[in-house]
Every structure is written in structure tokens, then in C-alpha cells.
Write a structure and sequence with these properties.
This protein is α/β, with parallel strands linked by helices and 365 residues long. Helices cover 39% and strands 11% of the residues. It has helices at 35-40, 47-50, 60-64, 68-74, 93-99, 106-119, 144-147, 151-168, 170-186, 203-210, 251-255, 259-269, 282-293, 304-308, 342-346, 349-361; strands at 2-3, 12-14, 26-28, 33-34, 55-56, 76-78, 83-86, 124-126, 133-136, 193-194, 214-218, 239-242, 299-300. The strands form four sheets. It has a five-stranded parallel β-sheet, with helices on one face. A three-stranded antiparallel β-sheet has the order 4-9-8. Helix 9 packs parallel to helix 10 (203-210). The two termini are 21 Å apart.
Length: 365
């Protein structure tokens, strides 16, 4: 059985009710930073600058484009000769969302999205439970506030950020996860796989190894930083290897998403020369699946859509129709249905023979 998003047993991402997006969320449980810790790390902490939304007027054209002047007069308040903040009627994403509800023209949607960005414009988030304790905002390096820091403060903030997200919480989260996962794992003799994708702290593989939980290995979601594609020949034996999940595009859909990345994959991973084809042929699908079957993973479990991708006569015409779920799109529902009945698939002799041969040749039968 599979534990979806096993990170939730270590900590959850707690999003404020006032937010539409999740950038102002914080970990729970977590070990926030006291003001003294932030200052001792060399960062010149200032509440007015770094926990309250404000933006230098020089950035308004970059954020709002041709609407900068109108926005500054209608949606913002002047904090000083140089800086603006959000008007109280628009000082949260929920207020912004509600105001622009039904205003679907290009101008209003452009302003709304830019105001959403501005509502996230902080470097630190106050802890909900402990006064004078703060959390670095996720992806704070992309804010205008970060761009304005001097090199010394940038270096100090980068250290604080890296330590907070990748080191500070490790032992704390490990103890929390072991307390929850141990009785769960002990309740059955079934093998268990943990979906360990995303920003994974060091304590996660430590706990999974200790409890003998299989990891989930996906070629296009490598575990190592600065690696574009997972090296399938190097993944651990105690793992489940797959081409895609219900929350991802299929092989064919992924192939058409980013042709520059597809080209690198075609040349470097598949070892093919020349220009990559614009669509994923049945032969390419077969090559991708073959590489997965030949990995050292204990289990290789592939979506049926990817298996059907190897036969251009039976797969769907449109690769997008193979998609089950798009997590970032709340209006994309789990509407995928098989376009062929099982009885029909059983009669596809060439397809069934090809699959059986691939499994036998990879010593998985």
C-alpha cells in the first residue's frame, strides 16, 4: 500500500485563512526562529521592513506594468516617500479575490494576480503561537524585498533560510514521524511505499530506511538537487519505480510540455541522436518503459495509460486526455475514464504480447 505525501507525517504546510495561495504558510509542527537567533546569524532584522507588506515604488511598473499609476492610487497606500503598502481593503489575498470576483477581463485579472504577489511580499512570517518568533517565507529569494538587501544581509538570510528548511527541523520532525508511522507500519504485514517527492528534508529517508518503507522513484522528479533526470540504474532496490502518478502528465503528455527538456532527455537519457520528435511515438514509450523495467527497484508499477502508449493503434489520439489530475487547477476533476473496455484490450494480441515480452526480458516475471 502507498502512503500519499508521507511528508505529512513529519509536518504539514499550514496555510492562513486569509491566503489564496500558499506562500505565507508555515510548517506545523515547527521550530521557529527567535529574533535574537536571526540577528545572531548576521541579519539586520526589522519588523516594519520584513514582516509587513511593502514595496519600493520603483518596482511598481515591473509588477503592474501600464497599470502601475492607477494601482498606486486605488489599491495602495503610501508608507513613505519611497515605499507603498496595501490599502486595508486589499491587505489579504482573500479580500483581493473577493473584490475581483466576476471581473474577468484582462486588465482586472492582471491587477489581481499582481496584487496577490504583493500580498506575499515579506521575508519572515510571525509564528502563530510564540511571540517574537518567525519563519522565513518559502521562496523568499524571489521577492522584491530580498532583491533590495545588501550582499551581507542576503548572505545571512540565505544561511538562515537553508538551515531552517533543510537542517533545523530534522531531529524534531524525525521524532514526530516515528511516533505516528511506527504503529501504522506495525498494523499490517503488507509492504508499504511512501510518496517521498518534493522538498524532502534529510530526516525523511532516515525514517523510511529505519521503518523499511519503500521510496517512490520517478525519473523526471530526481531526489538529488541539480539533477534533471533520475539515473534509473542507480535507484535503490527498496523502492517502487514508476513513469508517472495520478498527479502528473503521462509519458506522452510530458513529452509535449517542454521541448528543450524533451530534447535533452532524448539525447542524454535515451541516447538518441538528432532532433527529438514533436510527439512521443509508441517506440519512444517502449524505450522509456524498458529503462524503468530494467531498474534495480524491487517493484515497477506503471500507469495503464503509459502501457497503452506503446501501441499507437490503441492509445488515445490526444495525450492530454490521458491525464487524471492537475493539482494546481482546482477545476480539473478526476474525469479520466478508460476509452477501451478490458474485454477489448484482452483481444489486442500484439499489445499483450509486447508487454509480456518486455516483462520477461527484464526478469520481472
Amino acid at each position: 500500500y502507498r502512503i500519499d505525501h508521507i511528508l505529512g507525517f513529519f509536518r504539514i504546510w499550514e496555510i492562513p485563512k486569509s491566503s489564496v495561495q500558499a506562500l505565507l504558510a508555515t510548517f506545523n509542527p515547527a521550530l521557529p526562529l527567535h529574533i535574537e537567533e536571526i540577528q545572531n546569524a548576521g541579519f539586520r532584522f526589522d519588523k516594519e521592513k520584513y514582516i509587513q507588506v511593502r514595496i519600493n515604488g520603483c518596482f511598481l511598473p515591473e509588477l503592474f506594468g501600464v497599470y502601475a499609476q492607477e494601482v498606486s492610487e486605488k489599491y495602495l497606500i503610501r508608507l513613505s516617500s519611497q515605499y507603498f503598502g496595501l490599502h486595508r481593503d486589499f491587505d489579504s489575498q482573500v479580500k483581493i479575490r473577493d473584490y475581483f470576483s466576476g471581473k474577468d477581463d484582462f486588465k482586472n485579472q492582471t491587477i489581481k494576480q499582481a496584487l496577490y504577489t504583493l500580498a506575499n511580499e515579506v521575508l519572515f512570517i510571525p509564528d502563530s503561537y510564540h511571540p517574537d518568533n518567525y519563519h522565513p517565507r518559502i521562496a523568499a529569494g524571489q521577492t522584491f524585498a530580498y532583491r533590495e538587501l545588501c550582499d551581507t544581509d542576503k548572505h545571512a538570510f540565505d544561511y538562515i533560510y537553508w538551515d531552517y528548511f533543510y537542517h533545523r527541523q530534522n531531529n524534531f520532525w524525525k521524532e514526530k514521524a516515528l511516533r505516528k508511522l511506527t504503529p501504522l507500519i506495525s498494523s499490517t504485514s503488507m509492504l508499504v511505499c511512501g510518496e517521498d517527492l518534493g522538498m524532502i528534508p534529510h530526516c525523511v529517508p532516515e525514517v523510511m530506511d529505519e521503518l523499511q518503507i519503500l521510496s517512490l522513484e520517478i525519473e523526471r522528479m530526481p531526489k538529488q538537487p541539480h539533477v534533471e533526470f533520475e539515473q534509473l540504474k542507480e535507484i535503490p532496490y527498496r523502492s517502487v519505480c514508476t513513469t508517472s502518478t495520478h498527479d502528473m502528465s503521462t509519458i506522452r503528455g510530458w513529452w509535449e510540455e517542454n521541448f528543450e527538456k524533451t530534447q535533452r532527455y532524448y539525447n542524454l537519457t535515451l541516447g538518441q541522436t538528432g532532433i527529438a520528435p514533436s510527439t512521443c511515438s509508441g517506440e519512444i514509450c517502449r524505450m522509456v518503459i524498458k529503462n524503468h523495467l530494467e531498474s534495480p527497484a524491487m517493484l515497477v508499477i506503471l500507469p495503464l495509460q503509459d502501457w497503452m502508449g506503446i501501441d499507437e493503434k490503441i492509445r488515445r489520439k490526444n495525450a492530454e486526455d490521458e491525464r487524471i489530475n492537475i493539482p494546481s487547477n482546482p477545476r480539473h476533476y478526476w474525469g479520466y475514464r478508460m476509452h477501451l473496455e478490458i474485454e477489448v484490450l484482452l483481444q489486442k494480441k500484439n499489445w499483450n504480447t509486447t508487454i509480456r515480452k518486455m516483462i520477461v526480458d527484464s526478469n520481472r516475471l
